[in-house]
Write a structure and sequence with these properties.
Strand order of the largest sheet: 3-2-1-4-5-6
Distance between the termini: 35 Å
Helix content: 40-55%
Strand content: 15-25%
Order of helices and strands: HHEEEEEEHHH
Mean pLDDT: 88
Number of strands: 6
Shape: elongated
Number of helices: 5
Radius of gyration: 24 Å
Low-confidence stretches: none
Structural class: alpha+beta
Length: 214
Amino acid sequence: MISGFLFTVSLPDDIRRYEDYTAAAPCGDSGSTDDCLRALPLTVDRTVVKKGKSGSFEATLSDPAASWKTVVSFGDSGPLLARLEPGDQVTATVWRGAVMVLARGDLRQSTADEPRDDPQMTAGLGTFAGLLAALGLGFATAWLAGFGGREPWTWRSLGLPLLIGMAVTTLGVAVPAFAIGLPWWVVPGVTVPFVAYAARQLHRYRQRRPDSAE
């Protein structure tokens, strides 16, 4: 199940990786292991700044002296990527074999590989996936019990409103929790009871007014 994977594998791994990254020291102070932060001077070979739904933000970097080349991705074009031209020299912060940050002068930009402190968003995805699975299980049970297609067990009457409510509630809890810096467990801890209560109330309301979806 997607929800179980996010909560038991992805979320702990992301938290552990972020903690390891923030605790890493420059290689000059901690030796030459992959867990230290290595500063490498690299040359920009090519950049891609493509906005839109199928957008792409990339930079191809190389170290001619070591015959080494890599392509790094970014979440957007700024503040550094859009200013880079082929032949520019940049300093890359490398951790565990991947480029975490590019810098040129006073400008710095994190790559897509840099660990982020956003477990609340992962918890939001896991919570929504779990609620979606519960919604599907509820409708499957209703069909097996002979209530499928009858009020209130119809998509229009119960399914769609609950789906929209789950998405809005999850987003409405996860985003503020991330912005404020609340623990990730606040997201399922608030969202699940609220959605369960709303689902029960909506079900009771539809039972009293079966023609409300007409």
